Amino acid sequence: MESGMFEDEFQNDGSFLHDEFEDGENFEDTENETSDATDDPKRQDLNGEVTERRMWAKQVPKLPVTEQIIVPFKGNQPVGTDIDGLLGQYLGRLASNHKLLPISFKKWPEVVKTYKDWVWEKHIKVKFWWEPIHEAAARTSFMMDMGKKWRENRIRLFHTKFDKTLSREENIRNPPLSIPPTEWAAFIDYRLEEDTMKKSKQNAANRAKLTITIPVALRN
User: Fold this and answer.
1) Exposed (0-12), middle (13-18) or buried (19+): which is 176, by Cβ within 10 Å?
2) CA distance 51 to 33
3) I need a labelling partner for 205 at 20 to 30 A (CA). Which of 51, 129, 214, 220 fits?
4) How many other C-beta atoms are found inside a 10 Å radius of the C-beta of residue 134?
5) How far is CA 198 from CA 76, 149, 167, 203, 208, in A?
6) pLDDT tens string 88-112
7) DSSP state, 132?
8) What is the pTM of this model?
9) Which percentage of the chain shows pLDDT scores above 90?
10) Angle made by CA atoms 13, 15, 19, in degrees to the nearest 5
11) Interhelix angle 181-191/194-209, nearest 10 degrees
């Protein structure tokens, strides 16, 4: 499905997204997670009072509306061992939520800005806090991270849910429960395009050629 089809349909304020995407939503677990990230982030309330308490990524959506998790920045990048795992896995949960960020777009840059803005405003800015001077850097950093995770999730989804023993039509008739049939069909068609399959094989070949050199200190 071409991005233009979405752009014509969804040029509005985001009201097409259902209320189920509000703060109380339980994001589905991403399939590559073996455990939920836990950190001890600093949080502040509306009065600026800072507290510190262990949290899991799955708890972020249920964070009280009066509290936000503090994200420290150094230059243009978020820093801090007390936030890295929590933030990264929460962004991964957003990126793999097919209702928030549909898989039917061919590339991350083609995902309509309306979707990205909704996620930014309703699921990130309300949960995390940073110095105002880092606003642009935060959006750039978080969106890049989500884009990478969105792409990885689509690859994983195809390899785990597409049955090579079945025909295209049979696979399309059997979408994962969380994905609308029309989106699943568009995604399958994209993955089966000759150019896409060629690139996928080349990427796999390139990964197979990679070697990792580990320096070892020897002592006589």
Assistant:
1) exposed
2) 28
3) 214
4) 18
5) 36, 22, 19, 9, 16
6) 999 999 999 999 999 999 999 999 9
7) G
8) 0.70
9) 47
10) 140
11) 70
